[in-house]
Design a protein that fits this description.
Helix 2 packs across helix 3. The protein has a five-stranded parallel β-sheet, with helices on both faces. It contains ten helices and five strands; from the N terminus they run βαβααααβαβαααβα. It is of the alpha/beta class.
């Protein structure tokens, strides 16, 4: 059986950037965020569960996700977030396991329990100052809000400790060399 590999990292670490570079090398990567959105749109069972949890506001009249209503529900309480995750995470996990992809990108790998679906964890890390800069540029927010988002996630030190392989994605790091080492290690496994 082929090894399954997860790529994770905090917001602004550059995990999506790393995944795009790996995809250019021919590695097909399952994107958990994209899959969750797709499944919430397309799965009749998931749609029913979300309507049962959030109400008919979960979807717009054209059938698309009502992102504002879902975000509002999520932010209202930790219990709401847990209830939504209890519906969405199992569907995403099953979809990944049924896919033909061995690699996954998952921002909340440990929080979702998806680390149990893989054999190897790759953590993408970057200095917090660079992460703040990236988040500010990408999302048009101020430094305080970016730092708040970072603080809500697993600390980088814990990600590094739990990972099997670490990619340092700072401005002075040789990303290409690290990706080559990663690809070689994963091919040998």
């Amino acid at each position: 059986m082929k090894r399954r590999i997860a790529i994770t990292g905090g917001i602004g670490s550059g995990k999506s950037y790393v995944c795009r570079k790996l995809e250019r090398q021919g590695i097909r990567i399952y994107d958990c965020d994209d899959a969750a959105k797709r499944l919430m749109r397309e799965s009749p069972a998931l749609r029913q569960s979300l309507i049962g949890l959030i109400g008919t506001d979960a979807y717009l009249p054209d059938g698309s996700l009502n992102k504002a209503a879902i975000a509002s529900f999520l932010l209202a309480s930790d219990d709401n977030a847990r209830a939504l995750n209890a519906i969405v995470h199992p569907a995403v996990a099953e979809d990944f396991m049924q896919s033909d992809k061995r690699w996954m990108e998952c921002a909340i790998l440990y929080e979702s329990g998806f680390n149990r679906l893989v054999d190897t964890v790759v953590a993408v890390v970057a200095p917090d100052s660079l992460r703040v800069k990236r988040i500010m540029e990408r999302d048009g927010i101020d430094a305080g809000k970016a730092q708040e988002w970072i603080a809500k996630q697993m600390p980088t030190s814990e990600l590094i400790q739990r990972a099997d392989f670490v990619i340092h994605n700072g401005e002075q790091d040789n990303l290409e060399e690290q990706l080559e080492r990663l690809a070689t290690n994963m091919q040998l496994a």
